Amino acid sequence: MSDGRLRVLILGGYGTFGGRLAKLLAHEPRLTLVIAGRSQAKAEAFCRALGGAAETVPLAFDRDGDAAAGIAAAGADIAVDATGPFQAYGDAPYRVVEACIAAGADYFDLADGADFVAGIGRFDDAAKARGVAVMSGVSSFPVLTAAVVRHLARGLAHVDSIEGGIAPSPYAGVGLNVIRAIASYAGQEVRLTRDGAPATGRALVETRRWTIAPPGRLPLRSTRFSLVDVPDLRLLPALWPGLREIWIGAGPVPAVLHRGLNALARLARIGLIPSLRPLAPLFHAAINRLRWGEHRGGMIVIVRGRDAAGRPVERSWHMLAEGDDGPLIPSMAAAAVILRRLQGLRPAPGAYAATEALELADYQPLFAGRAIVSGCREVTAETTGQPLYRRALGEAWAALPEPVRAMHDLTGDKRVAGRAEVERGTGLMARLVAAVIGFPAAGSDVPVEVTFRVRDGVETWQRRFAGRAFSSTQQAGRGRSEGLLEERFGPVRVGLALVLEGDRLRLVVRRWTLLGLPLPLALAPCGEAWETAADGRFRFHVEIRHPWTGLIVRYRGWLAPEG
Question: Is 0.90 topped by the overall pTM?
Answer without folding.
Answer: yes
